[in-house]
Amino acid sequence: MHIHFLDPYRPRNSPIHALDGRVKFVLTVAFILAASLTPVAAWPVYILLCALIFSVEILSGLGVGYVLKRALLALPFVLAAFPVIFTNGETVLFSFPIGPWMLTAHAEGLARFISVALKSWLSVQAAIIMASSTPFPELLQAMRAVGIPRLLVSIFGLMWRYTFVLVDEALRLMRARAARSGRSGEAGHRTAIPAGYHPRRGHREGVNVLWRARVTGGMAGNLFLRAFERSDRIYVAMLARGYDGEVRLLPLPPMTGATWGALLAGLALLGLLLSFGILFWG
Amino acid sequence: MYAPVQPMHIPDGFLSTLVSVVFWVISAISVAYALRRVGKDLGERQVPLMGVLAAAIFAGQMLNFSVTGGTSGHLLGAALATILLGPWAAVIVLTSVVSIQALIFQDGGLLALGANLFNMAIVGVTVSYFVYTSIQKLARGKSWGVFIGGAVAAWLSIVIASLAAALELALSGTSPANISVPAMGGIHMLIGIGEGLITIGALAFLYAARRDLLRTGEAAPKGGAAVWTFGLGIALVLAVLSPLASAHPDGLLWVARQEGFLNAARAPLYHVIQNYTFPGISNAKLATIAAGILGTLLVFGTALGVAYWRRKKA
Question: Which chain A residue shows the shortest CA-CA distance from B55?
Answer without folding.
Answer: A163
